[in-house]
Each structure stands twice: as C-alpha cells, then as structure tokens.
Amino acid sequence: MTVLVIWVLGAVGWGAVLAGLLRGLPRPARGPALFAHVATPAGIVLLFSLIGFGSLHASIALTAEWWALLAVTGLRPERLVATGGPGRLAAWAAGAAAATCAAHWFVFHP
pTM of the predicted model, to two decimals? Predict the structure, then answer.
C-alpha cells in the first residue's frame, strides 16, 4: 500500500510541475523544459537500476524532488530558473533531501 501511495504522490507531483511549466514558461524555453521534464522519470529509473538500486528508490527520490520544487516555488516551478538564484536552489535541494530521507524511512522502516 505504501508503494502505491508513493507512486500516486509522484504522479500528482509530476503533473503539477508539468502544468506549472506549461503555464509559466515563455514559448522559446517551454520546449526544452518540457522535454527534460518528460524524460526525467525514465532516465532516473534507468540510472538507479544501473547503479544497483531499484525503481522504488527512484520513485521516492523523484516524488520528494517534485514536491519540494512545488513547495519552494509556490506551485510555480518556472520561478526556480526565472527568479530563483542560489537561495531557492539550495532550499529545493535541502527540502528534497529531507523529504527523501523521511519517505525512505517511512517505506523501509515501518
């Protein structure tokens, strides 16, 4: 059941970031950003499988990253590149790390 919750939260977070990129980015930057966003799940799962982790670890990390991004940017992910700066990037990294550790503990140490 916990894995299903991670997948649903990941899908909702991915969709929320996608919607934010669609509405917030100007036309020239939208294409590359959308391509990178759509390619990220497959690329991360492949990377994690190549280094010896499974897709569950990748799902936890991606879910934490997407929700941390939404929290740091106020549901407007384009703010990270437009007006972000090092402070917002650091907040995103710290939030993603904390959420990943918390979710990992919740899933693997019930």
Answer: 0.88
Secondary structure (H, E, C), the chain: CHHHHHHHHHHHHHHHHHHHHHHHCCHHHHHHHHHHHHHHHHHHHHHHHHCCCCHHHHHHHHHHHHHHHHHHHCCCCCHHHHCCHHHHHHHHHHHHHHHHHHHHHHHHCC
Residue 39: strand, helix, or coil = helix
User: What mean pLDDT value characterizes the chain?
Assistant: 90
Considering its fold, how many domains does the chain have in total? Answer: 1
- Amino acid symbol at 80: L
Band of residue 30 on the pLDDT scale cut at 50, 70, 90: confident
Structural domain boundaries, residue 64: 2-108
pLDDT at 103: 93
